Amino acid sequence: MTSEETREAPVFACCSVGIGRWFWAAWESEAEARALSPALATGYEASADRAELKAAERLGPGLKRLPARWASGYKRRGGIAAHVPGTKRGVVGRVDTRPRARFGRPGGRLKRHEGSPRLAFLYCATEREPPDAIGHVAVTRHRIARHTARKIHVECDPFDEDEWARRAGRAGGSPEEAPKVRTLAVDRATLRAEGRFRCGPAHRGMTFYASEEDGIRDVEAALTAKHAWCDLLGVRFPCSIDSIKAAYRRRARASHPDAGGDPAEFRTVEQAYRAALAYFATAGDGIARKVGGSG
Q1: Three-state SS at 111
Q2: Could you tell me the superkingdom of the organism this chain comes from (predicted)?
């Protein structure tokens, strides 16, 4: 194999994001990954081996595996490839390599104030469907203001680090002494037993989780259950037009009457495929450029 062929081979990386949950991302080549280009495909699987198989299914055999930090960096920075060893944080060529905030979350390390308590958060996860992010999950973090034996009082508005610093300035160095903000009471027993706490309509039906991973997993599962075509095509959220088309081709080949399949089953698969395309069509042509995982 020539050096040119090696350089152009597709690459992927995966990292553990919890027990039985691995995030993976794949690029057309290592050069694309080093250029901080968006991944051609991403997703979640139950193991590293399944993640590699899924990446190979999307990009073909002969994948080159990159270190896990490429996947963890890409996930942490919300679609920006991992920092390339040996480069400085800042601008490489025309590409800005500085960490950016993840969609729906402030980024960067929290500033600690002298004498202030350690910050703690609950996470609110919701399906967000602007034209360029249909079916994706937005996560915001909300500061825990105080605890009682039965309740966790969490701020209504998402945490804003700059506002927190301004509050500290107004309060003479301690944000806790700044003017009080609106809070919601989260039932501790419900959060512990169910893994989430859903507020009433008066609070926009916000749902809080102990971790962002719990929120993403719950909302993705709800999206999958909400759309019947997911089960019929054998996909789950997050998914994309590309993964929907691939799933349709697999199911259509197996159920097509010319291949000895059931005509009624084939019609059901076609109807599910049309329903899936109609769902993604609401996002316009831009969604065709977004990729995700399929199950």
Answers
A1: coil
A2: Bacteria
13 vs 42: CA distance, rounded Å: 10
Instruction: Please provide the size of the chain in residues.
Output: 295
Strand partners, 121: 143
Tens of pLDDT, residues 40-54: 888 888 888 888 888
The per-type count for the chain, helices as H runs and strands as E runs, is 10, 12
Cα-only R_g, the chain:
22
pLDDT tens track for 169-178? 665 555 555 5
Task: For residue 215, give the nearest of 122, 94, 81 by alpha carbon.
Answer: 122
DSSP classification of residue 203: G
Task: Match 């929120």 to its residue by tokens.
Answer: 215
Domains of the chain from N-terminus onward: 3-82 (3.30.420), 121-218 (no CATH), 227-289 (1.10.287.110)
Question: What 3-state class would DSSP assign to 106?
Answer: coil
Please give, one letter per residue, the 3-state secondary structure of 65-80. Answer: ECCHHHHHHHHHCCCC
- d(CA 115, CA 33) in angstroms, rounded, equals 42
Query: How far, in Å, CA of 183 to CA of 79, rounded?
Result: 32
